[in-house]
Amino acid sequence: MPKEINDDDIQNITENIDELEITAVSTQQSTPLVKTGSNPLRVILDGFMGKVVKAMTIFSLLLLVLIIIGLVLKSIPVLKDNPLSTLLFSSQWSPFKGEFGFLPFILSTVYVTLIAAVIAIPLSLFTAIYLSEYANKRFLKYAAPMLDILGGIPSVIYGIWGVLLIVPFVRDDFSAWLGVDSVSGYSILSGGVVLAVMVFPVVVQIVYEVLKTVPHELREATLSLGATKWETIKKVVIKRASPGIIAACILGFSRAFGETIAVLMVVGNVVQIPKGIFDEGYPIPALIANNYGEMMSIPMYDSALMFAALILLVIVLVFNVYARWVLNRIEKSIK
Amino acid sequence: MKKRKIEELIFNIIMRVSAFIIFGSLIAISATILIKGVPAMNLDMITKTPSGGFFLGKEGGILNAIIGSFYLSVGATIFALMICIPVVIYINVYASENSKIVHYTRLSLDILYGIPSIVFGAFGFVLMLFLGMHVSLLAGMITVGLLIIPIIARTMDEVMRQVPVELKEASYSLGATKWETASKVLLKQALPGLATASLLGLGRAIGDAASVMFTTGFTDNIPHSLQDPAATLPLAIFFQLSSPIAEVRDRAYAAALILTVIIFAISLISRILIKRFSKNTL
Q: In chain B, which residues have their Cβ closer than 8 Å to the Cβ of A149?
C-alpha cells in the first residue's frame, strides 16, 4: 500500500545516505583502486560478522531440536520402566510406587481446553467479524490497543481474576441455575472460562487479520447482487477465510493447552478423571508446576514430569505446524 | 424479504454482545485488580523486603520480588537480543531471499512462539542440570531468554522487512559491505521498531511464572550475584495468594496491582514508540 512520503522521511534517508557517502568517499581517497581487497579490514569484518550472524541463526534453528532432544533424553528412564500405553492410558497415579498413569491429567487438559474452545471460539469469531465488517474507525482505534493489552496481561493476573470472580460465580450462581449443589467452584469449568478469556485476544487478532485478506471486490460483488451484509459475510467472507479461521483457532488453543499458572489456580488440582464440568481436574501443566519441588526426591518422578512436558510439546508442535502451514499458504496466495 | 432482515438484525446483536463480553472481560480484570489492589497497597510493599513472619501477615514488602523480576527480565532480554539481532540481520541482509534457511528459521521461530512456557521451564531445568548449574538468577535469565527469543526475533523481523529495499540498494551502490549496510543503515532505520520488539519481550519476561519456577527459585533476599536464587513478582503473587491468611492474600492483590501497572507502562511506552516509528517509515 503506498503511503504518503513526508519531509521527515526524506530527511531521514538523506541523513543515512550522507553518512555512507562520507565513508565511501574517504575510502576512495586513501585507496584509489576500487577492488574488493582494497580495504581488507572492512571486508574481513563483513565476512566475520556474516559468519557470526549465520551461526546465531543456526543456533535459533537448533533450539527447537535441542528442546525435543533434552526432554526425550530425560523421559527415557520412565519410558523404559513403563510401556507407553500404560503411561498414556492408565489412570493409576502413585509416584511412590512408581506408577505413572497420565490419563487423568491428559483428559483434564483436554476437557479444560474443550470448555475454553466452546466458549471462546464463537465469541471471538463474532467479535472479529464485527471488528472487520461492521465496527467504525473510532471503535477500532480503541479496540486494537485493548486487545493488545489483554494479550499482554500476565497469566497470574488472569488467575487472580479467576479466583476472585469466576470461582465464586461458578460456586454460587452458575451451579444454582443448573440446580447442582455443594460444588467448590474450583473446577474444570472455571479453568475453561479463565482460559477462554486468555485466548480471546489471540484468536480475535488472527481472525481479524485473516478476514482483512478477503478481497473487497468479493464483498462488493455479492452486495451488488442484493445480498444483505450478513449474507455476504456468511456465504462469501467466512467461506473464503475458513482455512485461516481454523488456523487461528488452532493457534489460540495450542496456547490454551499449555497454559499453566492461571488454570492451576482455579482448576482444583485433584487427580481424577473429571465426570462433569463442576468436578475438579488436574491438567498436565499444573501437574508439572505443582510438583517440581519434590520431583528430585522420588525416584523416576523427575523423568515422569519431563515426559509430561514432552507430551505437551508434541501435541502443541503438531497443532502449530499444521496451523502455520495453513497460514503460510494463505500468505502466499495473497502475493 | 423480512426473514433476511431479521436474520441480519439477530446476528448484528450477537456480534455486538460478543464484542461487549470480550472487551468487558478486559475491563473486569483491570477493575478487579484495582478494587482489590489499591486498598492493600502501601509504601512498605515497594520499599521493604519480607521480614520475619511476612508470610504470616507480619511486616515487610515485596521489594525482593520487584528487584528480582527487574534483574531477571532485563538479563533475559539482553540475552535474547544477543541472539535475535544477529538472526534478524542474517535473514534480512546476508541470506539470499527465498533461501531454505530463511524459510525454516522463520517457521521454527513461529513454532517456538507457540510452545508453552512450562515446556521452556522444563527444558531450562534439563539444561541447568546438564550444565551443572544451581537454581539461580543466571539459569532463570537463560530460560526466560530462550522463551522470549521467538517473540523478539519475529517482531524484529517484521520491522526489518518494512524497511524499504531502496535504502539497502542505495547503501550497496555506494560500496558499503553487507555488515555496514546492516549496522549503519537498516538497524538505525528500524531502531524504534526494534526497541518495541525488545519491550514486548521484556513484558513477557516479567509476567511469566511457569518458566521461572524451576530455574530461578524463590528467596526473601535481594539477589547479589547471578548465582543467587531470586524472587519474581508472578511467583510472589502466586505464593501469597495460596495463603490462608487474609492479610497475606491482600498483599497478593497489591503485588498484582504492581505487576499490572508495570505491564501497562511497558505497553504504553512501546505504543508511543510505534507511533514515532510509523512516522519514520515510508
A: 26, 264, 267
How far, in Å, CA of B117 to CA of B125, rounded? 12
Q: What is the pLDDT of residue B96?
A: 82
Answer yes or no: is A63 within a domain: yes
Looking at the domain assignment, is residue A271 inside a domain? Answer: yes
- Which chain A residues touch B165 with a CB distance below 8 Å? none
What's the whole-number mean pLDDT along residues A116-131? 93
In-domain check, residue A320: yes
Nearest CA-CA partner of B167 in B277, B281, B279, B250: B281
C-alpha cell at A121: 471460539
- Pair B232, B127 in one domain: yes
* Interface ipTM: 0.88
Q: Is the pLDDT of residue A20 over 60?
A: no
Range of the domain at A213: 85-334
Residues A67, A96, single domain; the answer is no
B19 and B108 belong to one structural domain: no
Q: Are residues A73 and A91 in the same domain?
A: no
Residues A97 and A56 in one domain: no
Separation CA B249–CA A160 (nearest Å): 10
Q: Decide if pLDDT at A181 tops 80.
A: no
Take residue A201 and report the three cell numbers written for it: 485476544
Which positions ≥6 away from A241 have C-beta within 8 Å?
A: A207, A210, A211, A213, A214
pLDDT tens for residues A43-102?
888 888 899 999 999 988 899 999 999 999 989 988 888 888 878 888 788 877 778 888
Residue A1 domain flag:
no
Range of the domain at B31: 2-40
Which residues 167-186 on chain B approach chain A with CB closer than 8 angstroms?
Answer: 167, 170-171, 174-180, 182, 184-185
Residue B35: predicted pLDDT: 92
